[in-house]
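User: Sequence in, structure out. Go.
Assistant: Echoing your sequence, followed by the structure tokens.
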Amino acid sequence: MRGDTEQNLQKAKNQAEVVIQEDVHKKWQSYVWDTLDKPPEERKFLFKLDFALLTFASLGYFIKYLDQANVNNAFVSGMKEQLSLYGNELNYMQTCWTVGYVVGQVPSNILLTRIRPSIWIPSMEVLWTILTFCLCRCTTARQIYALRFFVGLAESSFYPGMQYVIGSWYRKDELAKRSCIFHVSSAIATMCSGYLMAAVYHLGGVGGYAGWQWLFIVDGVISLPIALAGYFFIPDVPETTRAFYLTIEDVAFSRKRMVLEGRKPRAPYTKAKIRKILTSWHIYVLTALYVFFNNGNDGAAPVFAQFLKDSKHPKYSIAQINDYPTTTYAVQIVTTLSYAWISDSILSGDRLPPIVFGGVQSLPQANPYPSFRGLGLIRRFQIVNIVCYVSLAIWDIPETWRWACYILAGAGFGLSGLCVAWAHEICTADNEERAIVIASMNQTAYVLQAWLPLLVWQQIDAPQYRKGFITVTFLSAALIVTGYITKSLHRYQLQR
């Protein structure tokens, strides 16, 4: 029996050597979807992997963001008035969640290099689902602060953890699309949270619960089955996978693909490895890149909803206050997927152009990618981010343009997947560094987010938030500079 198993393993490895090629000639179909120009065996393997991993990752991130965004929706839908939250309590709720989210990320990703992701990540999902149920019973701000901290702590495992898993399976021409499809589910969740609040608000009074309390109950009901599915659908990483939907040949394909990408398997933590990670430019520059992206938008406060709630002429209903801001996330969905497809296909894996947010748009002679005529279009689209926030900081602008700024600002929300894909490629030679850098990027971004909103996105400044809009304009400019620094350092690294 053992001899037959070893024979089958060797046969699968031999097949992988034939099927998996280092360079595949691109056909026009690959610009639509990257598996269409690959051998049938590899295409079948990727279909199964995409169906299981991306479906669960997207649904899991959907419920994470649904739970994360529901406080904002509940706040503007009756919680503020019922619990008498007329100071900066919303800021404190967000900060408590952020502190918990920050504390857990790096330790969680370190554990993921030693514990099966298919056990750790779903267990944390079940925990935050239970805590979400508990939020509906809160009667004071202090209770919400405590629960939001532990919700953030449990949720800290998911995004960096799933990005680590995704980066362990996909190649360069596939990675940005998968990372961005995963990330775009956050926008869908935020949209659905608004629609969900508009729907469940009418349940107010049923069972003795207010409409905003029903939001937390329904969130928990949606979240629990998705969390439990993770135990079955997360494939771990290629060298340890035991996924029921992957054959011996599929596992051999996955390992060969990562060898061709230079993506190293797990290795022990040693003093030399830790010293290498902490003295490399990777962890510092990539973290700065992500910090500027993550905080260079108005996601820290429900700015559009606050504007609508503050309006007296016209006066908007609760349903409108929850529904209209979802248009911002519709823009995020379209731009996120556009960035991914352009980066993976037309730009052949170059991550910089979609990350750069305007700033150089007025310098057409500075185009470092003359073969890509669409770059000017990207720059015109990206400059919208800074223009929108400058306009909102001025505030005294036409009402139609104000609405356009709130909506088009979603174009700046969708770069997370590209930043993470770039980090996977830069840190490809060290599995443990890759896991720690991904977590550090997200963790440090939220360190800034833990205290920055208390200074520039104060609830008492709503709806104008002038300090906030000015701050994110400068952070967007810093993102441009850091993107070019990362590009230069990576080029130098490849030339060594």
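User: And one key feature?
Assistant: The chain has a mean pLDDT of 84.
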